[in-house]
Amino acid sequence: MASDCAGREYLLSCDGKELIQVLVENMKQEERDTIYRQNLLGALQKLSLRRTAQSTMNTLHLIPYLLTLLSDLDGLSEYTIQYGTALFMNLCLRTAGKKACCELVDPERTLKVLMELSECENLQVKTYVNGTLYSILSDPTLREHARAIGLGDMLQYLRGVSDEGLVRQIDFVIEQLNAEETPDISDTVSEDGEEEDFEEEEEDQDATDEEDTDDLTPQGDEVAGDALLVRMYGTAQLQHGGGRGGGNPKPPITHPRKE
């Protein structure tokens, strides 16, 4: 449901803050990179296309959690790395997100995690990292720390081994890093202002968002689909049967049939 624009509007129009808080709490309780946690992360990333959702997630201090999560790349699936980086970028588009990167965590740690992510082979991850860097380097504190750790040299190296599309992105980041005075790219509306999805500005991005199938494969003894829903959220009636006939009723949510 969160993959669709109308679905996001519906989910956030009821009690979006409570929904996001529940998703975040359950995600933090999962210590392993399970399908359950991946689904929670994916849902939060898609909801973060809405400004109100970004505001709520920043209020819940999600930036420090994501930095800790993305610090252990060897233990993460490509799905978690990609969606975690995309969510991080969306939150850093907001003033509260930028401040979290230097006030709630060590600024140099933020930058080092991002540079480690930039070495991933996934092109989407590289793009999200470049977008994040461009955004947070508008903050003078983060820009100063970036210069101190030699971020410029790292970016020049990446520029030399990247394709043309990534080179253009890196050039913008380098320009932002070297700027003495940066343009104000902070929030241009109130904290709970415009609620349109970011991707609605471009039809191609909208189509990509809705075509995302989130094909997650269970690992080992993990459960997925209906079984996962019943285990995590099912009522006693769903788990043990009930109603007329004493049979086992079907779970209330089923996977869509593949045409």
Instruction: Write down the secondary-structure element order.
Output: HHHHHHHHHHHHHH
Rg for CA atoms: 20 Å
Distance between the termini: 18 Å
Oligomer: single chain
Sum up the overall morphology in one term: globular
pLDDT under 50 segments (min length 5)?
188-194, 199-211, 233-259
DSSP summary: helix tally: 14
Portion of residues in beta strands equals: under 5%
The total of beta strands comes to: 0
Average pLDDT, all residues: 80
Given helix and strand content, the structural type is: mainly alpha
Summarize the main sheet. Answer: none
Which percent range fits the helix content?
Answer: 55-70%
Topology:
Elements: H1 5-29, H2 35-47, H3 51-59, H4 62-69, H5 78-92, H6 95-103, H7 107-117, H8 123-136, H9 140-148, H10 151-160, H11 164-178, H12 203-211, H13 225-233, H14 236-240
Helix pairs in contact: 1-2, 1-3, 2-5, 4-5, 5-8, 7-8, 8-11, 10-11
